[in-house]
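quick one before i forget lol
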Amino acid sequence: MIMLYGFDTSLSEDYERFRFIRRKGYVPFFQQYWPIAGVPDRVPDDYFDMDLNAMIRLTFHSNGQNWEKYLLWINTFYFQRYGRYYRPLIEILYRYNNRHRLEWFRMNPACMSDELYRDHRDSLAELHATLRQQSLGPRPPRGLSRWLAQATPDST
């Protein structure tokens, strides 16, 4: 069963769909919506409309890597919306696979927050400056430095 995400749904709507297919025992294939050129994204401004911890607790044992891609999308989208990664989501994502990523986050605690849905975007310039000074250790998550450079053009 193909489950599209990232198009015109909220977190609670995704949660209800995913929970339903999990209860039925279906094997889902999660597919991110890729916008058509020239057509704006259709992710609602109020996408995060429920407790993210409930979504994090969902599991799909038969298709874990595919579920992980969805959680990575939520992780990136959460950072772009709130300016920090959500620590419980990071710990779930990198518990088994890509543990070196978890080490990067532990070395950079300023990139994470334990507070759900707290907006940290006002301090993105400081975060970007801190990450640019760091040259040793594991590399940051894919696209983070580029996204921070675009989000904080005055910090160069």
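fyi The radius of gyration is 16 Å.
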